[in-house]
Specification:
The structure holds 2 protein chains of 2 kinds. Chain A is of the alpha/beta class. Chain A folds into 2 domains: about 160 residues, P-loop containing nucleotide triphosphate hydrolases (Rossmann fold); about 80 residues, no CATH class. Chain B is mainly alpha-helical. Chain B has a single domain, classed as ABC transporter involved in vitamin B12 uptake, BtuC, CATH 1.10.3470. A two-stranded antiparallel sheet of chain B has the order 1-4. Classes of the chains: A alpha/beta, B mainly alpha. Chains A and B meet through helix 2, helix 3, helix 4, helix 5 and helix 6 of A and helix 7, helix 8 and helix 9 of B.
C-alpha cells in the first residue's frame, strides 16, 4: 500500500519552476531516495511534503488523506518527521532537551497541569525520557546527552537531528542530505543506522542524498529529478544508468 | 568537582539536583526569612521592591530570555496590573480576589496584544510593544474616571484576613511568598512540554513548527503568561508606591525591566534575581556611597545614572551572558582547578545556519 502519494505537484517561485508536474508514490516500509543535480528541486519537494511551502497545483496524500492544505504544525501529528539539510537544532539547549522537544506531539497534559507540575506531568516526563533514552541507545548518543548543541561537532549534530525526528515516533521520515558534511566512516555508520531505523522501527524513509554509494547501499527505489522535473524512478542501478539521468549529471 | 550518581531519570527534573543545592538554598531561605530581625524598615522596603522587580522580571525573562521575543513595553503590563488592582480595591473587592483578577486581566491583554505582534520578530516586535506601552500610557492619562488622569489614584491599604499588610515586615513576607510561588511556577513551566516549546521557538521557528509546535498559539501563550507575571508584580508595586500616577510607568520603566533581564543573564531564572538585585539596589547603593566619597566626586550631578549606565555597557561588552553567565564561569574555575584554561569559555565559531525560510 502506498503511504505517500504525490500527484502532479508544481511550485514556481516567480519565473523559476522549482518543481514541475512531479508525481510519485512511496510504499509503506521502503527506503526511497531522491537524487539529482543542484537546483533540481529535491529540498523544495521536501518542503512541500512538510508543508513549509504551499503547492501551486497538485495533491499530496499521506495514508489516504489529502495533506496539501493541512497547517504546518499538524504535519508532525500525522506522523511525518524531517531533518534539515544544514541542521536546524535548538542550539542553546542540551541534546536531551532537543530530543524531548521531539516528543512534543505526544504530550497529553494541559497548561494548568504543567504550571503546577502535577504527578501526571511528572509521569509523562518520565515516559518521554524513557522513549528518548531508547533513541539515544539506537543512535549511540549516550556521551552527548547533557551537552549543549552549540558545542558539538557537525557529525554529531546530524545524528542528533535524526534522533530528534525519531523521538516523534513518525511513520514517515524525511532525511534531507543526511550524509552531507560527514566523513566516509561516519557515512558508513549512517548507512547501517538508516537500515536499522527502517527495519527495527518500521519507519518508511524518504531521503535526499548526493552520495551514490549510500543511496545504492540503502535504497529500495530511487527517483531522479533535474530542473524540477522527474527523470526516472526505479531500482538504484537502473536509475543510475538511465540515459536522461546521465545527461542531467554529465551534460550531452 | 562534584559527580552526581544518577539512578533514576527523576533526578534530572527534580527541583534540587544534589545535597549541595539543598544546603545552599536552605541557607539562603533562612537568611531571607530572618532578615526582618536585623534590618530596618527602610531596607525591608528596598528588598520588597527587589522582590517585586524579580516577579516582573520572571515574566519578561519567559518572553525574552526563553521565547526569544523582545518586549520594550512591559511597563504597560505593570501599569495594567497596578491600576486594575487599585481600581478593584476601590470598588470594595477583597484583596485576595482583586490581585488574581488584576493578574488575569493583564494576562488577557497580553494574549490579545500578541495576536497582531505574532508576525514580527526582533527589533520590529520591540518597536510594536513600545508603541503599545505608549498607547497604554495615554489611556492612563485620559481615562480620568477610572485612573484619575494626571492627578493620580490613591491605592487603598491592603488588608488580608485582618492582617495589616502595609506594615513593612508583613509586606516583605508577602512579596517573598509571591516571588517564591512565581519562581516555582516558572520552573514547572520550563521543565514541561509547553516551556520546551517556547525555547524551541527561540532557537529555530521552522524546526519548532515541524516538531508539531503551533507557533501562533505558543507565542500568544508566552505573551499572556509573561504579562500575567508582570501584572501581578504591578499589583504589588501599587501598594509599594501607594499612589499611582502615569509617570510611574514610562518608557524608562520598560527599559529598566529589559535591562534587568539582560544584565542578569538571558535564559536563566537565576539571572532574573541577579538582575532585580542590580536594578533595585544599585541606585540606593550609589546614593549611600556618595556620603563616603570626597566632596568633589560626591557633588557630581547625575552620578547614579552615570555609574548605572557604565556598568550596563561593561556587562554588555564583556559578559553578554550577564551576571549569571559570569557566575557560572567563576564556579567552573573552582570546579576545574587547576585545569581551567582561559580558552575554556571562548565561544565557538557557530556553524553554518540555513537560510531562514521566512
Amino acid at each position: 500500500m502506498s503511504l505517500l502519494v504525490a500527484s502532479n505537484l508544481s511550485l514556481a517561485f516567480g519565473g523559476v519552476h522549482a518543481v514541475e508536474d512531479v508525481s510519485f508514490a512511496v510504499e509503506t516500509g521502503e527506503i526511497f531516495s531522491i537524487i539529482g543535480p543542484n537546483g533540481a528541486g529535491k529540498t523544495t519537494l521536501f518542503n512541500l511534503i512538510s508543508r513549509i511551502y504551499d503547492v501551486d497545483s497538485g495533491r499530496i496524500e499521506f495514508d489516504g488523506r489529502d495533506i496539501s492544505r493541512v497547517p504546518t504544525h499538524q504535519i508532525a501529528e500525522l506522523g511525518i518527521a524531517r531533518t534539515f539539510q544544514n541542521t536546524e537544532l535548538f542550539e542553546q539547549e542540551t541534546v536531551l532537551r532537543n530530543l524531548l522537544i521531539g516528543q512534543h506531539v505526544h504530550r497529553r497534559t494541559s497548561l494548568i497541569e504543567e504550571l503546577l507540575f502535577l504527578p501526571r506531568v511528572r509521569r509523562q516526563e518520565l515516559d518521554f525520557r524513557k522513549d528518548v533514552e531508547d533513541v539515544i541507545d539506537l543512535l549511540d548518543l549516550q556521551h552527548y546527552r547533557h551537552q549543549v548543541i552549540a558545542n558539538l561537532p557537525y557529525g554529531v549534530r546530524k545524528m542528533v537531528e535524526v534522533a530528534r525526528a525519531l523521538c516523534m515516533r513518525p511513520r514517515l521520515l524525511l532525511l534531507d542530505e543526511p550524509s552531507s558534511g560527514l566523513n566516509p566512516e561516519e557515512t558508513d555508520d549512517l548507512a547501517f543506522q538508516i537500515e536499522d531505523i527502517n527495519e527495527e522501527l518500521g519507519i518508511t524513509i524518504i531521503m535526499v542524498e548526493h552520495d551514490m554509494n549510500l543511496v545504492s547501499m540503502t535504497s529500495n527505489r530511487v527517483m531522479a529529478l533535474a530542473d524540477g522535473r522527474l527523470l526516472a524512478v526505479g531500482d538504484p542501478k537502473a536509475v543510475q544508468s538511465h540515459p536522461d539521468v546521465l545527461k542531467a549529471y554529465l551534460g550531452d | 568537582m562534584r559527580f552526581v550518581r544518577k539512578t533514576h531519570y527523576y533526578q534530572d527534573i527534580q527541583l534540587f539536583r544534589h545535597g549541595g543545592q539543598v544546603f545552599w538554598y536552605a541557607l539562603l531561605g533562612i537568611v531571607i526569612t530572618g532578615a526582618p530581625l536585623v534590618l530596618s524598615d527602610f531596607y525591608l522596603g528596598e528588598l520588597s521592591l527587589v522582590f517585586i522587580y524579580a516577579i516582573a522580571g520572571i515574566g519578561l525573562m519567559l518572553l525574552t530570555g526563553y521565547t526569544g521575543l523582545v518586549s520594550l513595553g512591559h511597563a504597560a503590563f505593570l501599569a495594567i496590573g497596578a491600576y486594575s488592582h487599585a481600581w478593584f480595591l476601590s470598588q470594595g473587592w477583597p484583596f485576595l480576589l482583586s490581585l488574581p483578577c488584576a493578574m488575569l486581566l493583564s494576562a488577557l491583554v497580553g494574549g490579545v496584544i500578541a495576536v497582531p505582534a505574532l508576525r514580527m520578530t526582533g527589533i520590529y516586535l520591540a518597536v510594536a510593544t513600545l508603541a503599545f506601552a505608549i498607547i497604554v500610557e495615554q489611556v492612563l492619562i485620559h481615562w480620568e474616571s477610572v485612573t484619575g488622569g494626571f492627578r493620580g489614584m490613591m491605592v487603598e491599604l491592603p488588608h488580608v484576613a485582618g492582617l495589616e499588610l502595609e506594615t513593612p515586615v508583613y509586606f516583605y513576607y508577602f512579596c517573598l511568598l509571591i516571588l517564591v510561588l512565581s519562581l516555582l511556577v516558572a520552573i514547572n513551566l520550563l521543565r514541561s512540554p509547553t516551556g520546551r516549546a517556547m525555547t524551541a521557538i527561540r532557537d529555530s521557528e521552522i524546526s519548532a513548527e515541524s516538531m508539531g509546535i503551533h507557533l501562533a498559539y505558543t507565542k500568544s501563550l508566552a505573551f499572556a503568561i509573561s504579562a500575567g507575571f508582570t501584572g501581578l508584580a504591578g499589583g504589588l508595586l501599587a501598594h509599594k508606591i501607594g499612589y499611582l500616577a502615569p509617570d510611574s510607568f514610562t518608557l524608562l520603566t520598560s527599559i529598566q525591566l529589559l535591562l534587568m533581564v539582560v544584565v542578569g543573564g538571558l535564559g536563566s531564572l537565576h539571572g532574573v534575581i541577579y538582575g532585580a538585585i542590580f536594578i533595585g539596589l544599585l541606585p540606593q547603593g550609589i546614593a549611600i556611597l556618595r556620603d563616603y566619597l570626597p566632596g568633589i566626586i560626591a557633588r557630581i550631578p547625575g552620578l547614579e545614572p552615570g555609574i548605572f549606565g557604565l556598568i550596563l555597557v561593561l556587562v554588555l561588552i564583556y559578559e553578554p551572558l550577564g551576571i549569571h553567565g559570569r557566575w557560572l564561569k567563576i564556579r567552573s574555575y573552582f570546579e576545574l582547578f587547576p585545569l581551567y584554561r582561559r580558552a575554556t569559555h571562548k565561544r565557538q565559531r557557530s556553524y553554518l545556519r540555513t537560510e531562514r525560510l521566512r
